[in-house]
């Protein structure tokens, strides 16, 4: 009987130990959503110390990698040393998360930190990391089959848009537009993401297709959409998935009835109007919206 009681007591203590050691990321996520990034980092470090297994550690680590992106973005643009340090720290956190327990979010925030590092360094100086970024993003959309991550499509679009093309690297402005359209179509309903709208508008304005060129090119792109074998390949052609008959949620006409630059202005006007009724407006959103308004006004 004593042995049975001892076994029962041991089991109870083990269960209690697991309960009390389990992590909770609710507070850290709430702090992150409020743009309290330093506080979120401290809370996550506390939770990391409570993690009882590799999977819990991985959940905390990719969140720390995410926070590093935001902390780096908050620094002055001229503080490149500070930005480099934070993005490199974020990459290390993400690598640790993937090593502990691979998740699509681990790969996402690894590539995001590397991408920010590259943007700070300059595209030509970041070419050496571009292939690794693409491999990580490919894992997300092909292996994990994660298609509803707006951040993933944003990073993919940025990668193809900012890298040179041709023999130097694999940049492709048209694929960047398709990936960015997917990024807009997968924005969570409770988030504003004005930077996504700005990115698409900038890509469209730079490409500068006329409505007539769209009418010719989008049916061609549709054929590539239909025959693509993998998600990464397929969504390169998302823009032409129905030959240009798509009517974006911010437009009353389909893609073939407006030019790139007309749509670019429309995209910015839409997000500025949406922001007037959207809540909550985060501090980072407010800054982005000011830049968007200035950009839109320079185009009209």
What does this structure look like?
With 300 residues, the chain is mostly helical. The protein has a domain of 133 residues. Helices cover 71% and strands 0% of the residues. The chain is built from 14 helices and no strands. Helix 4 packs parallel to helix 6 and helix 7 runs antiparallel to helix 8. The longest helix is centred in the first third of the chain and has 21 residues. The N and C termini lie far apart (85 Å).
Order of helices and strands: HHHHHHHHHHHHHH
N-end to C-end Cα span: 85 Å
Q: How many DSSP-defined strands? A: 0
Range of helix content:
over 70%
Radius of gyration: 22 Å
| Global mean pLDDT | 91
Uncertain stretches: 6-20
| Tally of alpha and pi helices | 14
Form type: globular
Q: What class, by secondary structure content?
A: mainly alpha
* Largest sheet data: none
- The fraction of residues assigned to DSSP E strands is under 5%
How would you summarize this macromolecular structure in one to three sentences?
Helix content is 71%, strand content 0%.
Give me the secondary-structure topology.
Elements: H1 2-21, H2 26-33, H3 37-50, H4 54-74, H5 80-100, H6 104-121, H7 127-143, H8 150-162, H9 173-185, H10 194-207, H11 211-227, H12 231-234, H13 260-275, H14 283-299
